[in-house]
Design goal:
It contains 6 helices and 3 strands; from the N terminus they run ααααββααβ. Helix 2 crosses helix 3, helix 4 packs across helix 5 and helix 5 runs antiparallel to helix 6. The chain is elongated, with a radius of gyration of 24 Å. By secondary structure, the protein is α+β, with helices and mostly antiparallel strands. Helix content is 51%, strand content 20%.
């Protein structure tokens, strides 16, 4: 309880600092907050516990997401799982027929960074799909340059589901 109070309520960036402002955020008295900090009260009432949980998540969740995005964009990459109609433009004589495919592909960090940057810049779903299609072209179809070198464009349509995982 004390740890949640100290870490959840007394965070930086405009969050509550100290027992007085912490009490205001939680809508309890400053004295009650001081009792929790001193371990005189150990178990909060149900409504206060729920409020504490909300406040901690509100302040910590964006930081956790930012760290996960940073890791994905620099070292970890991102996994895309999709079931969609995928086809490609290739030279005459090759099979470029669109078909429904279920793909689960690990994308390198540079594509994770591009997707996150585009999302933060307000990209449309279509623009994000184009980045994902380009990534699938390079990673899945061309295997990082080891095959299908003449592949020109990947079409990514009729998406049944599209999920990204870190």
């Amino acid at each position: 309880m004390v740890e949640a109070l100290e870490h959840g309520v007394q965070l930086k960036s405009g969050a509550a600092k100290g027992t007085e402002s912490g009490a205001g955020v939680l809508r309890i008295s400053q004295r009650t907050v001081e009792r929790y900090v001193k371990d005189q009260i150990k178990k909060p009432r149900a409504d206060l516990a729920a409020c504490l949980e909300r406040e901690v998540k509100k302040r910590w969740q964006p930081q956790i997401r930012a760290k996960a995005r940073q890791k994905a964009a620099t070292t970890g990459g991102i996994v895309v799982d999709t079931r969609a109609r995928v086809g490609y433009t290739a030279p005459i004589g090759s099979t470029d027929q669109d078909r429904i495919r279920h793909l689960t592909v690990a994308l390198p960090p540079r594509y994770a960074a591009r997707l996150f940057d585009a999302q933060e810049a307000g990209a449309t779903d279509q623009q994000l799909q184009e980045i994902a299609a380009e990534a699938l072209k390079e990673v899945y179809f061309q295997d990082g340059g080891r095959r299908a070198g003449s592949l020109e464009e990947v079409r990514f349509t009729d998406i049944e589901h599209l999920e990204f995982d870190l």
